[in-house]
Amino acid sequence: MNQSNGFNQKDVDNRDIDSVDFTDISIKKNVEITPLKPGGSNFKTHVLIEKTSSQLRYKPSIGGALFGFIFFAIGFGFLIFNIGFNKWFIQEPSLFNFFGLAFGLVFAIAGGYMLYTLYKPRVFDKQSGYYYKGYNFKPNERKLKHQFRLKTIIAIQIIGETIRSKNGSYGSFELNLVLEDGTRRNVIDHGNIKSIIDDAHVLSRFLNVPIWHAESNKL
To answer: Where are the transmembrane segments (predicted)?
Structure first.
């Protein structure tokens, strides 16, 4: 990736032998190198932790959890305020009252969805032999998109992208899993490249798979 995003091959490879690739090169050539989830936050949203010696999982970072909670609290506060204000001071609902309720509802739903997504389990479990992302883990179900056997993971992929908007630009980075059929599954996507690289090396050692990087993309 280009230097402007603070991410290049030396960042990934300068870690002993984690990035040595023993995978069939034909698979690597056919794996997509465009962002799997275009966009992403400009701050660290998740932290990789060792739950047990046989399990790694992601949990929300303090900043990520706080961001979602603030959205939810603002929305919920507006709902409570407008319901109470309407009950005690207004005999008939006004346009202002409806606007306040709508505003509060939108923020509360957005904040709730953020928290739901942030706290969604992302687990690498050697005991069950599965990776799963979601609240309902069914170890014997093989057709679910967000759970699959660890042995089907052949590489960790890191992709960076420069996201541009009217307020400026920032870098966001994906950590994806590459499966033996050449498909990819996204694990996390945020703006802290050091954390992404550190996580990739932890997962590379845990799963005994190489790390692949892709060129930078611009949105």
So the answer is: 61-83, 95-116
In this structure, the dihedral spanned by the alpha carbons of residues 9, 14, 20 and 23, taken in order and rounded to 10 degrees, is: -30
pLDDT digits (tens, 9 = 90+) for 27-43: 788 889 889 888 778 88
CA atoms of 49 and 42, how far apart (whole Å): 21
**H or E stretch covering 26:** helix 25-30
At residue 193's C-alpha, the angle toward residues 187 and 198, to 5°, is 70
Hunting for tokens 């998740």 — which residue is that? 46
Q: Are strands 122-125 and 46-52 parallel, antiparallel or unpaired?
A: unpaired
Question: DSSP string covering 114-168, please?
Answer: HHHHHTS-EEEETTTTEEEESS---TT----TTEEEGGGEEEEEEEEEEEEETTE
- Condensed to tens digits (0 to 9), the pLDDT of residues 98-157 reads 777 777 888 888 888 888 989 999 999 999 999 999 888 877 766 677 899 999 999 999
Q: Angle at the Cα of 201 (from 43 to 27), degrees rounded to 5?
A: 105
Q: CB 55: neighbour CB atoms within 10 A?
A: 15
